Fold these 3 entries.
Entry 1:
Amino acid sequence: MKPIRLGKTDITINRLGLGSWAIGGPCMDGDSQMGWGDVDDDQSVRAIRRALDMGVNYIDTANIYGAGHSEEVVGRAIRGLRDSVVVSTKFGILCDPAEKRTTGTIHSVEEIRASCEASLRRLGTDYIDLFLFHLGSCEADFAAQVREALEALVRAGMIRAYGWSTERPELARIFADGAHCAAFMHIENLFEDYPDMLALTAETGMASLCRSPLCMGLLTGKYDRSTRFAANDLRGLNAPAWMNYFIDGRPNPDFLRRLDAVREILTADGRTLAQGCLAWIWARGENTVPVPGFRTERQAGDNAAALEKGPLTDAQMAQIEAALDRA
């Protein structure tokens, strides 16, 4: 698969990203866990560098992943490699790094610049390639103000381009009118398809950065009905209200059932189950870039190896639709 260009910019990325939420460590959002449990920063750095060595050149993080800790780890991993790596981070949700918890959302354009400055410090860089708005929804008037504030950050040399993490195409169009809008991030996986967002990114020439491509690990096949997650893991008993991949600290049985129905199709041609799920996303469009998370070198390497096999065939996609009774 050929690299793709982000919007009208001169930024190009290969067709797989590194999602850095899981390496952020503990963080709370109200009474809900927002982290993925304990982390090993040295292992995280090794995993990132393994993926970079295998051809991945895009890393995504956010200010709230571990309340800034993920950005610090990413900055450490890319030290000395900055010019060869495309980095995106997100803003819009505020957090307290000392208390390791979220503290609200932005309400003014001044807070956008402050968020950018803080992320630059944690990443140890003087520019961010792609700055993504992290609030999935807001009023249209405020979205237009945010877009203009981001254009100002481009003029200041603090960011190269921007985008929005949202599943709402009508809002995304507000950003798409901006000269330096380059990508949209949205959920896209085997069981949660957003064709309207895919259509919008294709129409506007934006990259479609696909988050939750492996349903937070559920689509890797390593979890079953006996799996239980730790209390400090957002997939556990203190999960946020929106969690649907895991229920009561266990994998969603409906997702497991549907995964079993297509397992053989996804693992054909020597793919692992995770690689098959990433290949499904690539088959959904020429501008799709799945951004799976990782915790270990093995996970990062297995995901990166999927690049060699490329997308599923049209026949395999049709078989999956029939097996899931979605034809």
Entry 2:
Amino acid sequence: MTNRFQSGKKSERRGRKPDRRQELFLRIAADIESGKLTGKLPGVLKLADRYDSCHGTVQNAIRMLSDAGYIEIRPRSGCYVRRRLEVVVAGLYLEDQTPLNLPDAYTNFMANLAPLYQSLHDTLGKAGIPLSFEVVNLEDADAIRRLKRPDRHLVLNFPIREPERFYPLFDGCSWTRVSGTFDPDCPSSHFTCDNPAIGRLAAQRLMEKRCRSFTGIGSHAIGLFRQRFDAFAGELEAGGFRADHIEIDSFRMNLPEILTALKTRLTPCAEALRSGERGIFCAADAFMQPLQQVLDHLPGGADGCVIVSCDNNPYFLQNVTLKADEIDIGLRGIGTEVGMHILSGAENPVRRVYPPELRKS
């Protein structure tokens, strides 16, 4: 009986000790993550007093913290909190480069890059790296300074015009650029869509649908759209066709101006649009809502119109009933690759473009 009783007590003690170690581990880990503990940890005696625990439990918790990567044990020196990497996705903007048909910079960013953000979140989350999002005005020096911290890696989406002007603002910190026009001279890593491939694919799809005349919608003043349109026109010319273009700049034109431009150019070819003889390439989903308003009021309506668009942008496709062949430009793949690049810790810049998915929606 005595032996069984003693054996039971030993088993009970063994059951309690891991609980105490785990509880202390979680408490110290929470204080590290909140910033209450930084730099060199207090000694075992002070930690035991601080957390009202015994020395042995503290020592076991320290080993667990080391195994989990929270601290580094340096012989004859002590225990030091490891810097915990965090990643911040920053949507950078200027007041004069905000689309006039969007309510704010936050909506603009999330409308365009939400799939990238989600896949980046999923990739980093598997490694326990926190991800957050901020919208930052590039003319706010204090906001830029607060954004830059030694324990952060920034994933930056620059304004759509002349992004290279703002690279120097991020000297001295770790960052990766996403989206926009591919820049082989970017001083850091740059992952973006293959804009020329998107334009060629759009032309191929319209020709496959037996269109014989073609219209592109978007702005040549924006680099990534210009790349798409140039490749679109080149692919059509190789097939013996030419493309018209309707210059629509949502950064400079309000909605009534956009609608007027579309109506003026599309009304004369209403019959060709309705019959499917003329195909339309929207360089972004941002043009789908005003396009629908115009086509719905053309003689015969929008039935029969052949449209290729790209981005798979849920914000701009709200309430859009036009049937368009959507090109997925590959933002989810970019988010995954950016996450893997950050996890690798590689210091050498990576500059990569991602072709659009070839399947049709």
Entry 3:
Amino acid sequence: MAQVAVYDMSGKEVGTVELSDGVFGVEIKEHLLHKAVTTILANSRQGTQKAKNRSEVSGGGKKPWRQKGTGHARQGSTRAPQWKGGGVVFAPAPRDYSLKMNKKEKRAALQSALTSRVHEQKLIVLDSLKMDNIKTRDFAAMMKNLNIDRGLFVLDSSDSNVILSARNIPQVKTTQTNSLNVYDILKYQTLVLTRDSLKSVEEVYA
């Protein structure tokens, strides 16, 4: 089992903790990481784009001029794509972009992402993460103490003081253990867990 240091909010080392090899010490499967990120991004697309093709625009029933003798090119409708107000060629229509992953693939991808953070020394464990008041300044000071620029903070339970304090910092995201996903782990430079959330992650994703 790998061991990592445990810090308090002032950046002082207060102990160590052992990481479960079943979650933080697995073989990194890059193809599953790619598949997981692709799936998450695809599933976040609304797919509500829409434009009208020539069968849906109104008007255009009358032939604009006779077929021959005018010197113009032949035209059958003023709602053809080359006309102003005409329909769009191959117009986009609402569609479902969602993709699926098997449960075992999702779990293996998440374990690979967590293991990659350990290998890259981008995992920080806090003894606890509590704030008495909603203060973005205090949260930013805590990040500076821990030398964190871009961080994903994983909470064991919803803490409104912590969540609201971090909300206005662009390079920070807070989440809970049951909402942890591969995309967020890889997007943010540092993964920050508390002792409680670490225990929950090991229980849920083992």
